[in-house]
Structure formats: C-alpha cells, structure tokens
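[#protein-structures] MJ: dropping Alkylhydroperoxidase here for a structure pass
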Amino acid sequence: MSHARSEYEDFKRLAPDVYDVVLALGQLAAKAGLDKQLIELVKLRASQINGCAFCLQHHVLLSERIGVPVDKLHLVAVWREAPIFSARERAALAWAEALTLLPGGVSEEVYSEATREFSETELTYLTSAVASINVWNRFGAAYRWTPAKRPTAATAAAS
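AK: finished. structure tokens for Alkylhydroperoxidase:
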C-alpha cells in the first residue's frame, strides 16, 4: 500500500483557516438538530464511495462511540439490500450518494424520497453534512492521510 503524502496534522498546521471552516461546516447539521447517528452513516457512505481511508476509519470510530449499531456499520455499504435501515436513513443515504456521485445529478426519485423524510431545513443541513464530508474526503484521499489506529483498552481508559 502507498504511504501518506502528508498527514492530517500537517493540514491543520499548514491551513488552519481552511481546517476551521471545513470543521465548522461539518458540525452544523448536528447543531441544527439532525440525529448524530444518521449524520455518521451518511459520512461513512460518502467516505466509502470516495475511497478515503482516513475519514472512513475516523467515522467508524466516532460512530461506535455514539452508539451506532455495529450491524449498520457493517452494512452501510450495501444499505439498499439491508432491511436494518429506516426509511429516513435510506433517504439520507440515497441523498448522500447522489450528492457524492454528482455526474448524474439528483434524480426526481431521490429528491422526492428525501423531501418525504426531511423538512426543507433538515435537508439543507443534511446537504451541508454531505458537502463537508466530501471536502474532507478530497483532502484525505489526495494526501493519503494515515487512518487512526483503533484505541486499545489501555488508551481508551486513559482518555
């Protein structure tokens, strides 16, 4: 496997203003009241599509900490075939995929499904969450940031 071209900490040091803006954008959906577990599923799916190992690992670990069921973490890549996801989660995942894979745009079917499950405000903030993870993925994939290691019991107890 190839090695990192640069690291996440380098990005924070080299462009702290960009880091702060992207970080803030990524936090708005939760601040607006969208379910944090739903947001994490969306971020996981976009990171899978974009091939960003750093972001995928980061959001797996975060999802585990906030209680996303492990089956959902394992099945998010094949969410269409997994009945464990709610209609709202399915709408959010379809929305995230459409916005991540933009060449085809957002179909009327995906838009209708999303607007059935989310208010206009919620959908706007969900879109901001998808936009932010796609920005992070561009940095993480371009620079091949090294994914975080899973904390051991000893490191978890120390924090």
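MJ: nice. The mean pLDDT is 94.
AK: one more thing. The longest helix spans residues 120-143.
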